[in-house]
Amino acid sequence: MNLNGLKVMVIDDSNTIRRSAEIFLAQVGCQVLLAEDGFDALAKIADHQPDVIFVDIMMPRLDGYQTCSLIKKNQRLRETPVIMLSSKDGLFDRARGRMVGSDEYLTKPFTKDSLLKAVATYAPERAE
Known about the structure:
Elements: E1 7-11, H1 15-27, E2 31-35, H2 38-48, E3 52-56, H3 64-73, E4 82-86, H4 91-99, E5 104-107, H5 112-122
Helix pairs in contact: 2-3
């Protein structure tokens, strides 16, 4: 799978999660954008227009559901795949994620394989 040069954003208030996601993604050549919360992320998303966005559900100030909802309501960004990250693997969380327009749900702690597979699944098709 060719993920080289893809812009992937990871929004999580956990430094550990951000770092591990960054390492996994950088190893396959992705450009990684990191944000600590939804507010931080929204400014960066508008500037950089990532190809795929991972967002943690439980964050201070603006949670993952609110962040996803704002991304999906934005005309320019709504086609961007948003993948929710959560340490809870509940049906309610998945359903709520779908209600705000998320494309996928990944349980933390994620493995390198599950993270890259999610990116590959939702990465825009690019002409080789």
